[in-house]
Amino acid sequence: MEWEYVLLDKSEGIATITLNRPEKLNAFVGNMRE
Asked: What's the rounded Cα separation, in Å, for the pair 2 and 29?
C-alpha cells in the first residue's frame, strides 16, 4: 500500500495514525488496512 492517505507520527513511544482524505471526509477504504 502507498501511504498517501495515511500519516504516521511517532513521538516519545506513542504512534499517532491520521487518515488524510479530506476530500472524502477521511473515509476508510479497503486498501488502507494493508
From this structure: 13
